[in-house]
Amino acid sequence: MTLFTGLSAFPLTPADEGGQLKPELLQRFLERIVATGVDSIGLLGSTGGYAYLTPEERKRTLWAAVECVAGQTPLIVSVGALTTDIAEELARDARKAGVDGLVLAPMSYQPLTEEEVFRHFESVAVAGELPLCIYNNPGTTKFTFSPNLIARLAELPNVTAVKMPLPADGDYSGEMERLRAMTSEGFDIGYSGDWGAKDALLAGGACWYSVVAGLLPEPALALTRAAQAGNAAEAERIDHAFTPLWELFREFGSFRVMFVIAEILGFRSITPPRPILALEPAYRKRVESALRPLIQVAG
Q: pTM of the entire structure?
């Protein structure tokens, strides 16, 4: 397996009411993920709220994670930022800390052109000197990578994978076939969007970049391994247990729901960064109910 394959678990970045990192709690999250045996950890992803953190806060998070994880589970870190200079700095920080790879999304306030995105990735890939995964996340960045742009970026040194959104038409196989025809052998095509993970993996997707694995790594890994083995019936059974949680993710956004899950699992209360609001307490029972069948899978 290569770096951007299998199950990549993306934990929350826990902070206090003043927005300061809780390093001990982050390390508790990471220790649970490592113990499960996932294939990689995705630090400071969308689930980790990287867009809401200063470069200094991200650096503190990075070093707290490296201290906990180094040498146990491959660590990949998001280095997306509004400016190329800051993204380059974050990439260099990640390399100095000893992480294994980078994930980059084209954050922006002004809409970006394809040429601007290409040059941004080119600069960050050079600065980081690490395997880099393209993060195609139009739901948040409002930028959609064309197949031609992905193919062009895949020719750059260090750019070795892409993290795709779920295809609107559900045609994972067709999309992957088209991208593989345009990129070199060994370029990994994975997916985010947890409720589509089963179908993406069964269709041959290289990686599930998983929100839920940040707090529920055991059932997420069970689903991943069943799909990787081509056991469609077992993957369907496990995915069915996830269905109530997938519905909550789609209704409220996985980011908000994950904070409720953390509280239910007994971690100290943490809240999303403002202006994101925590879910109303009335929804807690729905989340608790959605977790019950997953405890059986984990057991």
A: 0.96
